[in-house]
Amino acid sequence: MKCPGCGGRELEPDGDGLLRCTACGEIIDGGPEWGSFAAVPTKATGREAVAPPANDAPATSEHLLQQWQEAVRLHGTPGRTLLVASQEIERLADVMRLPLHVRESALELFSEALRRKLVRGRQTESVATALLYASVRLEKMPLTLDEIAAESRLERLELGRLYRTLVRELQLEIEPQMAADFLQRFAQKLKLGDKTVAHARQLLHRAAEAGYGQGLGPGTLAGSALYLACREAGEPRSQKQVAGVAGITEITVRTRYQELARLASDGGLEL
């Protein structure tokens, strides 16, 4: 949004929904609190959500988040809430090196939650964190709840409860994560070869056919299968190394590895 008098973009609230141009002093009718925002369908929900106001340049990937933050600074409480949420999403996304489309999706989800008054009574940063994880799941990225929780200000159980509640309230359709989707990322960190990854993938496939792994987290299954595969493929890694990459404990690696190895020796995993 810019001043119709001088074309300046430095605008500040002047009360009663009005904006004042800091360059020429002209008072501009900002309309309703969200009047300068365009309602657009979100990728994540298919419903309308708050989007940054249009300007002369398209909302490219390099400038989208900056435009969003500049826009919400011009508005009242909803704007401040969105600003806090966008800052927390940015912080977590930077730490975890998440791509821009995941950040965009999280912002869209948060604006939808704000529109539905689902943020009321909850910590803004907590809702933003839970919806960033929802965005990760919607975009089918191989990241676990534990990994998000480790970088957030929430305990894992609290984050998990809030995530499930918001998914239900926003009526999001999120598919279960598959352990095989985590193999490549874990293997890259462990510097394992393609042969070992293929072997671990086959182990997971056979384990699923044998009914093993129900109720176990995808990171746990992927890490354990990789540990067994790398030992059998001649690329041994320590339980500590695998546990660190998978975000689980060494005891978990050892226990699940033993179960997989026992299943294989009993003929349950015919490779």
Question: In words, what does this structure look like?
Answer:
The protein has 271 residues and is mainly alpha-helical. The protein contains eleven helices and five strands, in the order βββββααααααααααα. The termini are far apart. It folds into three domains: 1-31, no CATH class; 64-169, Orthogonal Bundle (Cyclin A, domain 1); 180-265, Cyclin A, domain 1. β2 (18-21) and β3 (27-29) form a beta hairpin. Helix content is 54%, strand content 7%. α4 crosses α6 (156-169). The strands form two sheets. A three-stranded antiparallel beta sheet has the order 1-2-3, with no helix packed on it. Mean pLDDT is 79; it is low at 14-18 and 29-62.
The CATH topology annotation of the largest domain reads as: Cyclin A, domain 1
Percent of residues in helices: 40-55%
**CATH homology group of the largest domain:** Cyclin-like
Class by helix and strand content?
mainly alpha
Mind telling me the C-alpha Rg?
A: 24 Å
CATH structural architecture of the largest domain: Orthogonal Bundle
What structural keywords apply?
7% strand; Cyclin A, domain 1; two-stranded antiparallel sheet; mainly alpha; 271 residues; 11 helices
Q: What's the layout of helices and strands?
A:
Elements: E1 11-13, E2 18-21, E3 27-29, E4 38-41, E5 48-51, H1 64-72, H2 77-96, H3 100-115, H4 124-138, H5 145-151, H6 156-169, H7 180-190, H8 194-209, H9 218-232, H10 239-246, H11 250-265
Antiparallel strand pairs: 1-2, 2-3, 4-5
